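Hello,

I think I submitted the uridine 5'-triphosphate job twice by accident. Can you confirm which output corresponds to this input? Input:
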Amino acid sequence: MEESRFREIMLTYGQEEVLEKVSSMNDKDKARILRQCDFLDFTFLKALKEGEKERGFIEPIRTMKLAEIALKKDEYERIGVEAIKAGKVGALVLAGGMGTRLGSNHAKGMYDIGMTKPVYIFQRMFENMMDVVNKTGAWIPLFIMTNIMNDREIKEFLVEHKCFGYNPAYIKFFVQDMSPCVDYNGKIMFAKPDEFAMSPNGNGGFYSSMVNAGLDKLCKEKGIEYINVFAIDNVLQRIADPVFVGATIESGCATGAKVVKKADPGEKVGSICLEDGQPSVVEYYEMTDKLMQAKDADGEPAYDYGVILNYLFRVKEMDSIVKNEMPVHVVKKKVPYLAESKDSPTGYITVNPDEPNAYKLETLSLDFVRMMGSCLPFEVVREKEFAPIKNSMGIDSVESARKMLIAAGYEL
Ligand code: UTP
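Support: Only one job matched these inputs. Its output is below.
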């Protein structure tokens, strides 16, 4: 980035101290910082001023439940299989996260959850995809979103493991954008003397990054009309599930969202709902007691279904979501930072905090549910489809996912 442009951006976002620090750097360090700025999205800093938007009027949404799905399963499956065979359905794995809670030094997908043999998270994903390939006889085009820190190791890992049997001709990688990390005073932090602290710009950054990589055009060329977007860390999930695909197509909705019945009203999953009449998701930390206790027309808990980050989005509507319209969320996280130290020969050390110390700026894919305009919430069985890995032990962990995989009949 040109220094003049950098200066302009810093002044726009009240980063005078940072500007001063960079201006006083030697040429080599300054050049490195300016190179880094080419892939940092500073527009996210505006979220610090704007704050989180107030929620609108929340009401229950109708969810397509298991019994209703069972009645039309064959028809939905037929529609889904037909769309997959016609090449209308792609898949997109969100693998750009940092997996900080898991605490591995590598990309989450490279984590081995096996007990008697290696079973990598990526391996589980490809095995799940092979179920539908074997059923339909068609390869599903797969987009893999990485970040600049894990892109190379993910590609090397998948080459080494021959994509676990998946046809590489159907795989396309793209790298998501990064956003700067700021301290609690809103100042951009440094990770090294010549590098800003940064993080991937959240799992909602997938479509704008796909567009930057020209992959939206590829979707059009190949006739891909729907994309199944999912998280890397749910090792039990069904990908491009024909019944889900068929039900969403038949509903005419621009989005299908897989949901599970919540384990308890406070479970840490977003609850699907209507917000000001539009389908939406209320995050678990936004659930008030009133919402948790609310009942629907049948006397059932009104917000009892949680999203599992497995969505089917219609490409046509995604096209109309411009990047700048995505809300940016300000999230407290642990961010390693540079601190002055008399004991270090360089005069600096990197501090790895034990507690959250900074804000990360992120877009979230759950915001697509509201922005796409229409959504079919589609219930799935937790024990068959939802084993997320966030931590190494305890809730949503390697430990809990192993138990669920074993109970579902997988060998580990
Ligand atoms: P999480 O929000 O659980 O984040 O991601 P994470 O990176 O896996 O873990 P923590 O919070 O650092 O411990 C849900 C999904 O979204 C992806 C993740 O890779 C995961 O599949 N993700 C998250 C991205 O692709 N990019 C991001 O910027 C953030």
